[in-house]
Amino acid sequence: MMDHARPTLKSAMLMTTLTEVEMATSHIFQDAQMTLLGHRKLAVVLRNVQTRAIELDYEESFNFHFTKLVLKVLKVRKGVPAADRIAKFVTVFVKKMIEDEAAEPSRPAEDEDGVPTVFVEFLLRHLLRGTELKFKDVRYRITQFLAYLVHTVPEIDEDLYKALEYTLRRGLRDKEHIVRLQAVVAMSVFQLQGGNDQKPNHAVRAIVSAMNHDESPEVRRAAMLTVTKNKYTIPEVLRRARDTNAINRRLVYGRVFMEIGSLKDVDVELRQSLLKWGLNDRESSVKEAATNMFTKSWLSMADDKILALLERLNVVDSDAAESAMTAYFDKHLESLDKVEFTEQQWKELDSERAFYIRTFLDYCHTHNLYNKLDKSLPEMTVLASYLSDYLRLRMKIIDGDQELLDEYTLFTKKMARFDQHILEKEADQADLMRRISKNEKAVTLGQSHLEALTELIKRTKHDLTHFATKKAELQKAGAETAGLNEKILISKARVKESEKELEELQQRLVKIRDLLLKDEDTLNKNLKALQHLEEEKESYYESASDIPRKYKSFGERMKHLEFIIEQLLLVIKRSDFADIAGTRKLQPLISQAITIHKLPDKLIILCVQILRQLSNDENYFSNLCIEIITDIRDSGMDENDQTFVSAASLFGENEDDEEDDADLQSNEEANKRRKIAPSLPSEDLLIQCLMVLQHYLELLEDSVSSTHQFDSLIETLIRPAMCSTNWEVKRLGVRCLGLVSLLDNYLTLKNLRIFGQYASKSADEKLRILAIQVVFDLLSTHGVGILGGDSEFAVDALSLARLFHTMLREFDHPKVQAVVAEGLCKLFLADLMPDFGKDDVVEDENEEMDYEGSLLRALLIAYFHPLNAQNQELKQILAFCIPVYSFSHPKHQSKVSSVSGDCFYELFNTNSKFQSFDKLMLPSTVLQQFIYWSDPREIVNIGEEDYKKNAAHLWQVMKFLEIIEQDSPKNIKKLIISNLPKLCLHKEIGAPLLRGLKQAINDTQEKISASQDNSDFVLDAPTERLFEKFRTTVNDLVEAAEADEAEARARTPNRSRTPSVPREIPPSTGGNSDPINRVLFAGATPTPVSKGNPDKRDLEAETQESARDDKEDVEKRKMQEKELAEIDQLLEEEEAVDYDIGKETR
């Protein structure tokens, strides 16, 4: 027998027993785990050992012992180098075995299964048996071995292939990310099995799914690097540029794109998105990688020609090309001196060259490269000449294809009109559906009430019959029947009243059914009309489908030419306006371009901005713009038309005019003599006027000099536009009216109601969004003080609050919800909401309308509402704004904590309407979110001493205790109690408030003890212990606070007799069951606190005694009063609040 020395090639050939083979194999494994350097030599030795074992007919034993040694590694955790070395050694050995068997087989060729196949299948089948074990280390090591082995095995049995594939697909869903990562690496081998670019196989789809959805960045990275790159996977891989992990994002711009190797495989839209995402990334490393990708990789793919690269970016429609050019200039500073633009280049601009010139000049302006500017930028006069040439070229192209342009304009108008009518019908359809649903519910409820009334009448009549029989019997017996007579009278009155109510109910049901039938009939007609419109639209599109095809090339030419003009205007905008000769030439050119050339909106914006720069003051600028608007409006009228236009003529005439019209109809000659108002300008001219007006108003700052012009503009342009049936024109009119109102407080008061009506009633969602944005802008600019008042145009806060509430509940219009939520959050963050509705007149003087609390509650409910689960825009707005608002100031956090209990109760009480939804958040998640928002430690710039004095969590506890006492489910009670220890309570809050909390806890405990007959109040032992522990903690805080009070009194013997709790205490409305009263009347101080005003003599005595205090004592008292000021404000706010959480707020 051989000794236990290290096996060699020579000793392997001398082996004769199985024991020697096993000992040699074990020794080789022992050496393999030490270092990676000798793996190839060890694999050669082990291969010779295997060959000798096969010669001795020990092949199965060798395979079994080899697998047994591998199994010893499986239980080793991740990160142990020795286990990783063994896994790599096994891979090296299998590769060596396959190579040797391919060169010189150990078995005859007629054998179906060679040595590698038998060995690998035995090892793999044994490993697959442990893939579902509960030990994560074992699952990880098995998947690691599989990932190594599948890359070395040339072929395996079909059944084993399916088993391996199934195992790896399960591994992609393993709960441990280290297992999923190895499964991704292993699955990458199967990507080429039966798939192609158009139809990828299951392995590719599985890896892409892991790349997009796995929560581990390491797994996503492995999938991104191992997935095959083809037409299907490239877009998915490049979208990882939006990955949450910075390393993954950086790899997309570096290694991944280098593997793709060509811009041709990436569509233009994705190229632009990649640039935008990378150049605007928050991580500097990612931004640098994106810059290198553009300035090195992409530029080299375009043969180092920047214009060719810009052509591939489609700069006309790109919103990332400008940032990319800035990065390019930063990387090529040394070559900027060589940049020159000849006159010929200026006269023969294309889109890419115009963009390059403009971005270069902007870069020079931004970085103060004045020498390069002087060298490259022509004079203003020359620029004006170039602009004039391109404007003339544009008009020449338009004139040459005017017929085609007219056809396309008519086509687009008709298609837009079809779309508008369809949207209107769909809006009517939705309104009818809501009304029908409401009436059906009313009929159902009315029918059930009708049946109940019928049964009541029947039962009462039966009782009457019984009473009559009994009365007859009593009368026959001569007994007293007075009591029975009274019952009979009561029953008859009840029957009469019920029959009357039954008759009224039947009449109401008949009316509702009639309305329901009419609505259903209208719904059917509307549905048919909608179908007819869609068919008509489709028919028209088919008949005119050649018009868009013909217009395509013309439209592309116009788009590129207008882009060139836009670049020239941007260059002019940043040029030197001190050139008098140039400005004199430029101003009439710009004015004429706006008036005559019918420019698109993006060019009108620049032209108006340039006119503002050319104007010395706003008065001149206003006159210039008004003149342009007038010229545009008048361009559609006949030259010989000398009639006048008045506001009255635009909005109807008076009775005298109507009589004159009647006379004129019978007198043709009189009709010729009378000057009548001409018709409004055409729709195209009206849109042109409104666009100029809009951009003029956006630049206007001084409204005083232009106030006299606003009325004329409103009457002659804006109101006619708002009366138009074209939604585009109407939106422009509303936008202009909003801009005018921003400049003038009176116009805001006058038009606010109009914006509210558009926001609530318009069928055009874009118009509704625009109107509500205008409302919020007006409130932000002029303040909420514009609400209410005695003006005939006044809009009260109640109406506006109802509008906000209604629009927040429009789940079918998620964009509307998001805009309203964003506007409300801005008002809250600007601290405008405390004054919201303070001037509203309330019928009951003791009732206070808490619009601020109501709207804040609505926002919190909207955040957790299950129907808003898919409204990502709304969720993102609220997820940002709510914590920012809560953590920005202690007052804000107090407001959030004061409504959080009501919101939680509304969501999770026993009879909550939210319980019927499937996607409602877990109560634990919602509760922890409310606790987090109310945590005083999260307030910005707050010190330890200040947050310990903050009582936000104390008031939240009071609300939570109310929920426990209310009709809430047992699981909610247990959840609240289990989270009470997480609340931030300290003795610095003060003994009065802590004593009140202590009393509230005792009251809640008594309520639980007294309601043991209700299963919802029967808590388990752990919950009771938690509640008792919390009560003990509060008791300790009370004792510590009282000790601090006593110590403070001991240090100040001449202390004033002013009570610890402020005298201005709101009168109790609910007894000691009210949580506020629990705090105030919990024996806070030895001095009794009355509900009315304190005695005047006591006040005078206290004042005299306070006057005798020394200066130090006075300062301390002032500090104490300052500390309690915040509590005073909370008490004032809570004065008239109904603390029955289940009751709806007005």
From TrEMBL:
It is found in: Chromosome. Residues 688-984 form the Nuclear condensin complex subunit 3 C-terminal domain. Its main location: nucleus. SUPFAM superfamilies: ARM repeat (SSF48371). Residues 654-663, 1129-1138 have a biased composition (Acidic residues). Keywords: Cell cycle, Cell division, Chromosome, Coiled coil, DNA condensation, Mitosis. GO terms for biological process: cell division; mitotic chromosome condensation. GO terms for cellular component: condensed chromosome; condensin complex. Residues 488-522 form a coiled coil. It holds the Pfam family Cnd3. Residues 1093-1125 have a biased composition (Basic and acidic residues). InterPro entries: ARM-like, ARM-type_fold, CND3, Cnd3_C. Residues 654-675, 1041-1146 are annotated as: Disordered. Belongs to the CND3 (condensin subunit 3) family. This is Nuclear condensin complex subunit 3 C-terminal domain-containing protein. It comes from Candidozyma auris (Yeast).
